[in-house]
């Protein structure tokens, strides 16, 4: 039995080492496959983050290429088709920054011929992904676009490359080129699934960015079409500006208005309807027209006019809120000063800027925003306006920032306005807007009134 048992044990010995020798190899292969899958998921996640971090097409693609280089390629390029069919090389990134001069290989490319056999031309027609292992001299190119493609391979070097079309919504938006300059890590058909996945994400990002740009342009045109022309008669000079939010394609509820009353006073209005959508824009137009009608019909002090508008809002749009300032600029006699009668409903205070650069926020006539308590009493205030002074009415996007208290924004407004006190009114508004709205994430509207000197010329008004 011992012998047979020994024989049985002897018979088992060859099988045991065989299992122990195979297990590490199998485990290594599994670990390698898992690691490759994790690397792929990490690369795709980083690419998605790069593309989703901005709506600017060029910046998003540049961040993407910096993610792909050198993890997937030694250099990469993105070429996009423009609306007129032109081809533009938007981004080229290399693992060695010294190989690239800013914008050297980027810019408009020769047109893509319909039957060109060049890899880039084929990709722009939707063929691919294409694996390239042979890179002829540029002198052998079949057309000018092919020549530019071969020049890029020659100047940056290439051992293998993949050119893949960027498809979205059944159309080709451009092409992505990835290249390796050495045998190690050479690109092959095994990389096609990953490259195609990347190309699909890039195409979606480009398509979304273009749709956003188109929508934003349309929204801005709609918003501007709802804003009025300023009056051009009388001694007062008026200027107004509107700037949409740069971070959203939605229309907003910011508006300004100015018109001459039957008695000769000039009504000056700024308002901001809650919300950033089409409904806010439509409501804004309704509020502006209602306020005009009430003001011209009643000819009452600003506090009473604002109160009547609040009552009308309760009937027409019972759940809508907005802020507003309604003011009247008038001169009661030849020897009398210009004055501003105004009432503010939850809106940032107007700013008075003298010709000497002194600034003061007009804090009178303040009340609750409109649409909350229509039966509440509204007050008004009166302010004398020195010759050559400027009154600025603005929406909160000019001064409010999410990461700071409002007082800092108001102080910044006063500093900028003081420095611009003697500038022409158009320059005053342009510089005030550009200096203060760069970091704003909200719409901005402003309207400014320049009080004339004792010998004033004709009235002028500008909008933008």
How many separate helices? 10
- Work out the strand percent: 15-25%
Multimer state: single chain
Q: Kindly report the spatial arrangement of strands forming the biggest sheet.
A: 3-2-1-6-5-4
- Helical content, roughly? 25-40%
How would you sum up the major sheet?
6 strands, antiparallel
CATH superfamily of the largest domain: PPM-type phosphatase domain
Tell me, rounded to a whole number, the average pLDDT. Answer: 83
Q: How many strand units? A: 18
Structural class assignment: alpha+beta
Order of helices and strands: HHHEEEHEHEEHEEEHHEEEEEEEHHEE
**Overall radius of gyration:** 34 Å
- Give the name of the CATH architecture of the largest domain: 4-Layer Sandwich
Give the termini distance in whole angstroms.
106 Å
CATH class of the largest domain: Alpha Beta
CATH topology-level name of the largest domain: Phosphatase 2c, domain 1
Whole-number total of structural domains: 2
Overview of this protein structure:
- It is a single chain.
- The protein is an alpha+beta fold.
- The protein folds into two domains: 30-215, 2-Layer Sandwich (Beta-Lactamase); 230-463, 4-Layer Sandwich (Phosphatase 2c, domain 1), CATH 3.60.40.10.
- The protein has helices at 2-12, 15-52, 57-68, 119-124, 144-156, 192-226, 278-298, 302-316, 406-419, 425-436; strands at residues 75-81, 87-94, 107-109, 130-132, 160-168, 171-180, 237-243, 254-260, 266-273, 322-331, 338-345, 351-353, 359-361, 366-367, 381-385, 390-394, 444-450, 461-463.
- It has a six-stranded antiparallel sheet with strand order 3-2-1-6-5-4. The chain has a six-stranded mixed sheet with strand order 13-12-16-17-7-18, covered by helices on one side.
- The chain is elongated, with a radius of gyration of 34 Å.
């Amino acid at each position: 039995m011992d012998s047979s048992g020994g024989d049985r044990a002897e018979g088992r010995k060859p099988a045991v080492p065989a299992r122990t020798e195979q297990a590490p190899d199998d485990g290594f292969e599994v670990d390698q496959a898992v690691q490759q899958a994790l690397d792929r998921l990490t690369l795709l996640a980083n690419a998605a983050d790069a593309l989703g971090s901005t709506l600017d097409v060029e910046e998003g693609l540049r961040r993407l290429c910096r993610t792909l280089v050198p993890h997937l390629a030694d250099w990469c390029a993105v070429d996009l088709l423009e609306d007129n069919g032109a081809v533009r090389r938007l981004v080229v990134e290399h693992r060695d920054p010294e190989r690239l001069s800013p914008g050297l290989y980027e810019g408009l490319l020769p047109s893509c011929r319909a039957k060109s056999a060049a890899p880039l031309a084929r990709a722009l027609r939707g063929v691919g992904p294409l694996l390239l292992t042979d890179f002829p001299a540029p002198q052998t190119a079949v057309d000018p676009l092919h020549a530019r493609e071969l020049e890029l391979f020659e100047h940056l070097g290439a051992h293998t490359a993949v050119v893949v079309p960027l498809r979205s919504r059944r159309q080709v938006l451009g092409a992505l080129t990835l290249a390796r300059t050495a045998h190690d890590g050479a690109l092959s058909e095994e990389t096609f699934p990953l490259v195609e996945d990347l190309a699909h994400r890039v195409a979606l990002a480009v398509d979304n960015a273009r749709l956003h740009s188109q929508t934003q342009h349309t929204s801005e045109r709609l918003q501007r079409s709802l804003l009025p022309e300023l009056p051009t008669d009388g001694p007062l000079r008026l200027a107004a500006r509107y700037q949409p939010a740069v971070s959203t394609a939605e229309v907003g509820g910011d508006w300004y208005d100015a018109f001459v009353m039957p008695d000769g006073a000039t009504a000056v209005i700024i308002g901001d309807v809650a919300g950033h959508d089409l409904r806010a824009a439509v409501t804004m137009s309704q509020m502006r027209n209602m306020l005009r009608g009430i003001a011209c019909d009643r000819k009452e002090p600003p506090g009473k006019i604002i109160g009547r508008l609040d009552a009308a809002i309760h009937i027409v749009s019972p759940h809508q809120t907005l802020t507003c300032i309604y003011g009247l600029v008038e001169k009661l006699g030849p020897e009398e000063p210009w004055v501003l009668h105004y009432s503010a409903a939850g809106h940032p205070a107007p700013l008075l800027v003298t010709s000497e650069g002194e600034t003061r926020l007009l804090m009178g006539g303040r009340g609750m925003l409109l649409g909350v308590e229509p039966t509440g009493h509204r007050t008004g205030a009166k302010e004398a306006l020195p010759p050559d002074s400027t009154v600025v009415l603005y929406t909160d996007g000019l001064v409010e920032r999410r990461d700071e208290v409002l007082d800092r924004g108001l102080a910044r407004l006063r500093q900028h306005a003081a420095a611009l006190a003697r500038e022409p009114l158009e320059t005053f508004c342009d510089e005030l807007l550009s200096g203060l709205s760069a970091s704003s994430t909200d719409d901005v509207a402003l309207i400014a009134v320049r009080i004339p000197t004792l010998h004033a010329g004709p009235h002028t008004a500008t909008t933008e």
